[in-house]
Amino acid sequence: MAINEETVKQVAKLAKLEFDDSTIDSITKELDQIVEMVEKLDALDTEGVEGTYHGLPQTNVWREDVVQKGTDREDLFKNVKTRKDGYIEVPAMFDNGGSEA
Amino acid sequence: MDFLDYTLEELHEKLVSKELTAVELMESVYENIAQTDEQVGAFLTLSKEEALAAAKEMDEQGIDENNVLSGLPIGIKDNISTKGIKTTAASKMLEDFVPVYDATVIEKLKQAGMIMVGKLNMDEFAMGGSTENSAFQITRNPWDLTKVPGGSSGGSAAAVAAGLVPVSLGSDTGGSVREPAAFTGLVGMKPTYGRVSRYGLIAFASSLDQIGPFTRTVKDNALVLNAISGTDEKDSTSYQGDTPDFTEDIDKGVKGLRIGVPKEYFHEDAQEPGVIESVRQALDFYEKMGAEIVEVSLPHSEYGIPAYYIIASSEASSNLQRFDGIRYGYRSEKIESLEDIYIKSRSEGFGKEVKRRIMLGTFSLSSGFYDAHFKKAAQARTLIRQDFEKVFEDVDVIVAPTTTTTAFEIGGKIKDPLAMYMSDILTVPVNLAGVPSLSIPCGFSNNMPVGMQIIGKHFDEKTIYRTAYAFEKENDYHTKKPSFRGGE
Prior knowledge:
heterodimer, A: 101 residues, mainly alpha, two-stranded antiparallel ribbon, 3 helices, 4% strand, flat, B: 488 residues, alpha/beta, Amidase signature (AS) enzymes, 2 domains, eleven-stranded mixed beta sheet, 15 helices, 11 strands, globular
């Protein structure tokens, strides 16, 4: 078994996700099966093969360095839950035991 | 009006001759939706007010005779940003999200005079093959309401197949246009990577995602691709070369064309026999029309699924980091610390499948597994791409089944992630290689439509459309209607 509960918890921490006791078993089992499937790649000889990381081999796409109109500042606030004095307001986090931050 | 009876060009003629006004056309669209969509579940949001206003304006200024798309209705997958119209990616995370700009494809469609009817259901963040991963509703296959329409662009497919709109846009990262097109008897295009701007498409896997049209006919599809293609300053991965007229040469036929048939895509024991049979009959047809059928090999095909799920999930885990509960999107109520904002918002806002992929992607990119997973998958991707390049030295197009089966039952695979992933086995290599592929209807198996994909060289969508049109012209699968829309 490549994936155990401990690995899942560790990866979840990196991904900023959490799984409660009722779902940790199923996600562990599912991930284990999926990882076993993708590790089928181990059988492939890739010695000396360059990886492909882009959809199209195209680099350094430039445009003229002239000022263009961007998105309106007010528009950018439209999907913000709460705002104050021109800033995005978030819940207080440091006074409430936010030691991890 | 029943769109199943008309092509885009025919609708255009009706508008030009004033047999029909744009407003009448749009009103009939919403009437149809009101009557039918309760059964199908294709639309998440309707933009009726805006659409009727746009249609009215169109009538007042007059339909542009030289612009075949002007005044025609279109449905849009809900991961394509539409200014002022809710765009959710079928996720609780974006339940209330209203974009403040249009995706480039939307700007282009507007320039072409097309009018958006509404936003279409999908698997959450385009992850899935059945549209059952939507946070809001399931969508049913118009050919059999107990079956899935495919995914992730299931709403886009079902809306066109049900005759609610004549055309829609979807996105295809690993088969999400072609699979639903095959399952619903439509023409669905995954253009060459870079052909269509991704600006404003909610990112899933950025090196694989492409937007493409669903239509009932091949020419309709080429017309819409004409409108949405082109270099875009806002997407530096968009192709810098020219965009041809995809309808040019469409009627040239297949005489002398070399069609490759990859043996890895025909597994008699693992695929629905009716699917293979339909595609083989299509190949016989091509041979009769003067094409040369050549057996070819894409030897690394079996590594497509593992490579795809690592690469797509890794890119997704990175792309979806932006959903942090701060600037937009869902925010949990149970916040006690900064970490809570991130962790609780993400854990409550994302659905099961999305979390699975983020986990797989994060795992594949983590130190200790990067080389064995992500790097290895990138190398496999090179080999898969080279398979295609090698075959295309010898043939003009490749023809194969789009899927291994016809549409499956609702609930049939949703509890088994691996079985769902395997439904993409014939579509993901195309995305990994970046080549274009079009699925067209080529028969029926168990009373459900069968799709055949025509894969082309990079940026050679023209030869694909030409090959597809040659088939459509002499066959009538595209004219068949689902029974609940008056078909047999």
